Amino acid sequence: MTATETVHDRIETARDDHTTAQLALVFALVATVAFTLLFVQEPLVHDSLHNFRHAVGVTCH
């Protein structure tokens, strides 16, 4: 990583290093985790995800 590297440069590097299928899988996993963390708010599910949320840096309260 250089001092002048941008997010755009990192995206281009990822496109060069990974297949379309790999990038689609990563996007699907991130979308699944985001949906779970944001929209599943049943108390038992919320409690079970509480430590995971903090581990990935999400502030939930």
From TrEMBL:
Entries under InterPro entries matching the protein: CbtB_put
Keyword line: Membrane, Transmembrane, Transmembrane helix
Transmembrane segments: 20-40
Protein name per Swiss-Prot or TrEMBL: Cobalt transporter subunit CbtB
Taxonomic source organism: Natrialba asiatica (strain ATCC 700177 / DSM 12278 / JCM 9576 / FERM P-10747 / NBRC 102637 / 172P1)
